[in-house]
Every structure is written in C-alpha cells, then in structure tokens.
Design goal:
The structure is a homodimer of 336-residue chains. The first copy, chain A, is of the alpha/beta class. Chain A has helices at 15-27, 39-42, 71-77, 82-91, 104-115, 150-168, 189-199, 226-251, 255-263, 265-275, 301-316, 319-335; strands at 2-6, 32-37, 56-60, 97-100, 125-126, 129-131, 136-140, 174-179, 204-210, 221-223, 282-286, 291-295. In chain A, a hairpin with a 4-residue loop joins β11 (282-286) and β12. Chains A and B meet through α8, α9 and α10 of A and α8, α9 and α10 of B.
C-alpha cells in the first residue's frame, strides 16, 4: 500500500506529518509513503529514520494552500502544492490514499476538482468519528456543505453507512437525521423534505435524532447539513473544555476538592482520553473517488500516525467501492 | 404587579406551578397572582397557603393545549385554556406578565395571535439564558423560528440586547452571530446575508461567534436561527449529561476514583448547580407585546418560582418598551 502524505499541512508541519509518517512506517512493514512538500524543511526530520528511509519517496511540492486564501483558487493555481499533486496521484493510481492536516477547504476543493467524485455523488462530505461514551458515531457533514439540498443529506447517509461498515465493522449501521424533535413532521424545511426520502434510502434509517441524544448512542451515523454539523463538532469541543474548566475551578476552590482532584487524577486522565477525538485520527472526506483523510490541524506526530492508520482502514475496508455501490442503488431507488 | 400563571402546564402541573406561585408570593408581598386552570385540581395544593391566599385569584380554565396537537389550532379552538385566557388578559391590561411551563408552541402561538407582536417585529423568539462558566449568555432563537430570514436575525439582536439591558443590567451588551468561522465571509447563505445587516443595527455587534466559543463569554447575546439554537440548547443538555456520565463511570472504575468522588462531592454539586439552567427560571418569549416567560417543562416548584422572578424582572426592566424603541430604530435604519 502506498500513501501520499502532505508534509506541509497543519499547525505543526512539517515535523508532525513527517514524524507521524515514520511512526506509521515502523508500525506497518508493508507500508510505503510519498512525502510531499518543501524538501529542505522535511529532510532534517528524517535524520533518525534510517530504518524506514527506503520506504519513503520524497516529492518536491513547495507551494502551500493556506487557510487564508480561496481553496478553489488555490487548487486551481498552486499546481506545486502537495494537495494538488496528491489528489492527481490518487486519481492516476500512483497512490492508494491521501492524508493532510492542512486547509480543509483545500482538501475538499482538491478532492472535488482534481480527484473527482464517485459517479452519482452530488456532494462529498467531511465526516469525523466522535465519542459518545460508549463508542463512536460518524457525524456527516461537518462543514463541506453549508447549504444543503435534501438529496445531499440522503447521500450522506449512504456514505456514512459505507464508512461504518468498511472501517468500523458495524454490520447494519443505524443512520439518524439530526432534528429538533423526534417526530417525522418536526424541523426546518430541509429536514422535513429529507425525512421521507431517507425512509426509502438503502440503509437502516432510524429516524430523527434530537440534539440532546446525539451523544446518547442512538445512531452510528448522524446526518446533518454542514452548517449544523460544524456547529455540533465545534460546540462539542468548546463545551467539553468549558465544563472541564468549571470542574477544575470548583475542585480548586476548597481543600476537599483539591485533594479529590489529586486522588482522582488517573480517572480524569481517562476521561480526557475518551473525549479526545484526535486519537481517532482525522475526518475522512467521503464521496470523492479515493481514500482521503483530513487530519486535525493541530495534530501532533502521533495523531498524524492515527490519521494514516485511518486511511489504511478505509482502503482495506473498500469504503470507496461500498459508497459507489450504495449511491448506484440510492439513485436507482430515487428515480423509480 | 399582577401575574397570570398557567397552573396546568408542564410535567409536574398543577403542583409545581401552584406551589411555585405560593413561594413567589411569600418572597414578594406586593405580588398578586391569577392562577388559571382546573380549579378542582388546583385547590388541594393551596391548603397550606392561607398566608398568601388573599393575593391569589382563581380563574377557571379547564382546557389544556398539549404538546401533541397543533399549537395554532389549539390556540384557535381552546378558548378555555390558560394560555389563551392569559394572553388575552395581558393584551387587555388585566395582567402584567404571563408564565407557563406548558407547550412551547402554544405559548408562541398564543403570543403571536392572541397577545400580538410589538409593532415592527417580524417574528417573536424564544431566548433562554445559559451558563458559560463566567455568567450567562442569552441564546436567541431557540426554536420558535426554524426557517429564518436575515431580518429576523437582525431583530433577534435588538430583542436580546433589550433583555440583557433591562433584566441582567448589562449596559452595552455584546451581540454575536453564530457562525462556523470568525471571518465575515464565512457561513451559509443566511448568516452571510445577515452579517452586513447586523453591522448597521443599533446594538454592539461583535461579529461572528464560532460554536467552540459559544460558552467562552465572547458575547452576551448569541443570535442564530431557531433550528441551530435548538440544536445548541439541546446538545448542551445532552453533552453535559454524557460528559458527567463518563466522569462518574471513570471515577467508579477504581478505588482511587471512588474515594476522589466521595471527597469531591461538594465540588461536583457546585458544578451541577452552575450547569443547571433551570435555576435561571425559564426562557422569555421576546417580541410579543407583553412580558411572557416559558418555564422549562420539567420545572419543579422552585424552578417555577424562579421563572416568576424572571417575568417580574422583565416587567420592572421595561423590556417590552426597550424592544419597541430598538425595533423602531432598527427598521428606520434599514429603510434608509
């Protein structure tokens, strides 16, 4: 298996992507990696990687598409960027998967316009796995599509279903629709129109999931428009931080609390680990014609290695093929 | 001051609204209350309230608009409901404020069609005060308007600004717009169109607030469409519960954790109190031509008494007048 790694994306690049790649290569002797970026910046971090160096191909890609420019323009003009080169390598079969911790917009635009969509897919979507205390659920879409049509959401269900089958190994994933009530007639215009279409879709649709139940293990795939999904994802991050801050503040407020905090440290550390979704790796870009994972922008080397593990699982689990099959069935159903 | 109380609304009615009213009357010797509902069910709970009985007027309102019927139809047909009678009493000056823990839809429909809107207001909104660790922010709208136009959101800012000035006493409330990025050009079609209009609105607009910062005290009033607001409100409830469950589970998993849990109990109790937004009372319905508070459906007597305190503050703080003035200014600005 050969993966294409954007060495220049993310807050800690190139160190984290390069050292993460080395970690992944050490974990898997069958893996090969193409490291793309500014070679002068990459090479120093390979000084201690002689043991895996023969499985690394360095590729010069000096341009970077940043978070501060138009992703579509970036993908169009920066042909020497790792994102553009990686997507073309995937398209042409020179790589089996792609990982970047860089601009989400650039990964999305590169996926859309350089790699291309799976036939029949209206809109690719970004879909992180998030913790719910009992395991994980896939939240799709998380920001690729801020204004959605009902058919996009129906297809997000197909893509999420495929991911949970292929990567997580759930036989018949429960697919739910984010809504403000449990009843079919609830919601805004978008979800009201989406609901009956999802009932006919080729997956295990379990109906609406109220926001209070998103982390209550009511569905394996939770579908929403990208604006709502981004709200949920970011709010989860912010609220967990606020709540942990309140707990810390109250425990430090008196001696009893301070002692409890000291004694309870291992338990709190486990809680933090459960809530830390960077452990999972990153978020797959589903619907494009290849295995693409967007690692968290703040990924360190280990988190980046986890994202590499994730893209490997997508390839092994044939997620792209399962989506293609599901979309063909869904579009045939919808045309009836 | 005379308040109209729906004694039949909420999960714990009539006990909670009746005993909550008695608590409020004991706290404030100047208060008078109209208790409306099924009198045979109400009277037993007044057995121990001889000390305030002379300030209670009982009003027969045997019909109840439930959560399981169309609110608009309910308000149209159930003329003998406390909601309809209360809204008419407000309209006709027979009461100064209204509190119900019943169907949110019924309170909203009653407010719209029986009480009426403040002149110039496009859509009333539901706006709870939520904790952020440092204090509270007002989230507007939380479900009254699931499909919004930009002008609704601009006006939600006016209404939230008025509430924070009149009730919470903040001189120049910071008004933020919920978005998926901090930059003005981010977001879905709705917020992109709303942003420049908010810049011209007669309040202290502080720009976009990303979901991760909603509980980070970046704004006193946080504006969004009712679908997003309901997501945020309910997700906050659900996630806080999930997180506390994970913490509890991890602490019970070993002896150290169990001991820490015991010693830390007072601190955990304080955390729970901070996060418990029912302490605040309920959510005001802003934009209608009177002081209306929707208490949480699960309110107990004390929570109901808090909701009564809240409606009193709305009346004392002249929130309706401030909104009317703000809306006049905003619509004049917009027409320029």
């Amino acid at each position: 298996m050969r993966l294409f790694i954007d060495a220049m994306g993310g807050d800690l690049a190139p160190e984290a992507p390069v050292l993460g790649s080395v970690e992944a290569l050490r974990n898997d002797p069958a893996l090969e990696i193409i490291l793309a970026g500014d070679l002068a910046q990459i090479e120093p971090f390979l000084a201690d990687a002689a043991d895996v160096r023969n499985r690394i191909t360095l590729l010069s890609a000096p341009e970077v598409i940043t978070n501060h420019e138009s992703p579509v323009m970036g993908v169009r003009t920066k042909k020497e960027s790792a994102t553009v080169k990686g997507m073309l390598a995937l398209r042409d079969g020179e790589a089996d998967g792609f990982v970047s911790a860089g601009s989400t917009g650039a990964v999305l635009a590169g996926g859309m316009f350089r790699l291309g969509r799976i036939p029949g897919v209206e809109r690719p979507a970004i879909a992180p796995l998030l913790p719910n205390g009992k395991g994980h659920f896939l939240l799709i879409d998380c920001g690729a599509n801020v204004d959605c049509k009902p058919d996009y959401l129906v297809q997000f269900g197909v893509m999420g279903d495929a991911y949970m089958k292929g990567v997580v190994g759930i036989e018949n994933p429960r697919v739910g629709l984010v809504n403000i009530g449990a009843e079919a007639e609830k919601g805004n215009a978008l979800v009201k129109e989406t609901y009956p279409k999802m009932e006919k879709a080729p997956y295990n649709f379990v109906g609406n999931v109220e926001a209070r139940d998103i982390t209550a293990d009511q569905a394996d795939v939770i579908v929403c428009d990208g604006f709502s999904g981004n709200l949920i994802l970011k709010f989860m991050e912010g609220l967990a931080g606020t709540l942990m801050g309140i707990i810390k503040g109250e425990m430090m407020a008196d001696t009893r609390g301070k002692i409890a905090g000291l004694i309870g440290k291992p338990a709190f550390r486990r809680v933090k680990k459960i809530m830390d979704y960077t452990e999972v790796g990153g978020a797959p870009l589903l619907g494009v014609n290849g295995a693409v994972v967007k690692a968290h922008g703040s990924s360190n080397a280990h988190a980046f290695a986890c994202a590499i593990t994730q893209v490997k699982k997508m390839i092994d689990g044939k997620v792209v093929d399962i989506i293609a099959k599901g979309i063909a069935e869904q579009t045939a159903n919808a045309a009836e």
